[in-house]
Specification:
10 helices; 460 residues; single chain; six-stranded mixed beta sheet; alpha+beta; 2 domains; PmbA/TldD fold
Amino acid sequence: MNHSLSEQLQAAIASYRSVIDYLEIRIDQSEATTLSFRGPHLEAVDRNLGLVGGIRACHRGGWSFVTFNGMAELSDRLAEATSQAQLIGQGITTLAAVDPIQDTVSAPCDRDPRGVSLREKRAILEHYNRLLLEFDPQIQSTIATLSDRFSTSYFVNSTGTCLVQERLDISGRFGAIAKNSDGIVRQGFETVRSRRDFNAVVGIETQVISAAERAIRQLRAKSVKGGQYTVILDPHLSGVFIHEAFGHLSEGDFLYENPRMQDLLALDKPMGIEQLTVTDDATLPGLPGSFHYDDEGVPAQKKYLIKNGVLAGRLHSRETAGKMAETPTGNARAINASYPPIVRMTNTAIEPGDRTVEEMIRDIDNGIYAVRMLGGQTNGELFTFAAAEGYWIRNGAIAEPVSDVTLSGNVFQTLKDIEQIGSDTHYTSGGCGKAGQMPLPVSVGGPHLRIKNVVVGGRG
């Protein structure tokens, strides 16, 4: 780690402390590799070594943000950011207080991808891609990507915080697109991630092939008949539901600008059954959304958004916490230093309950089992999700597969309609998008959920 760089940043910021309310410098040095196949063709081999920096300044409530790509620019960019904030500011700077911290965080590493040759990475990915292409004659195309990124982030601010944090991300993403003689197209996807070991993407043939298996299964499925059903969500879909439909509503920047939503999400308001607990936890080891300090230097925390069925908290940056007279939660994040940190989730999940899947299904005469998510959208408290797979539940048992399963509703009513919460749990890795910053590493988690009166739409 380059400790002299930290000292250089601290020295550069020192002369501005008396003329600006708040000032910070962030720098990311990174080394990244990405290989991708599309169908039988190697589509890209990218290797990138980069340094990007960002400076945020705030004076009398006015923010400025400037970027730079080399240390030679630092002095000029600091002066620019400071003068812009001084020009914009017309009010009061409100930032929740945070104790200054000085720390260095190393990334744990078993097999380092930087020591693996491009030739070996290509051979591994080509092998997986061939498995997908040859799985079934109805597989028309594939998407296979292998990527790794090692970064060192430097953070210094005018209140005395100085942090150096390493981060390693390794991922494989595999997709199969299938088409039958009737022209129906189905897709299946699988993602594997690790924060410490390249071997996590070695020897994963069974997981890779599962993407093709899902695509082929859905070709045989008949479209679901639209209506209201009792629905069981699998852990993948329950995690995506709580992240997309509820988690984004809990972000402080959204709430601060939306008085109506502040009323709907008033603290201590009942949200569901007593067993319903929702957390956002950046302290969980090894997950994509985990870290020691966020991009404002606030320590990672476990936050309860809903606890025992009651609204318990929301997610904050220092600014949103200050403006709403609450405590910073360590949720200011950016995809890299060339973007300003904004309020983002980390690892968001519904905590396990006390029911087995068999108990949840046993007394459903006619329902739907929805598995994973293919796509979806949210609009305020309204949501629509398309499940990647679906199955009829008949007479208390999972029956034949169904396709075109879309789930829609109002998130607050849907939370109230959760009847039972499974005792299992699973976290799924993903990339979240907001305000042009995507993909931000996050994970979503949860158990199986049983929800009544869900509006399910099919084709036709």
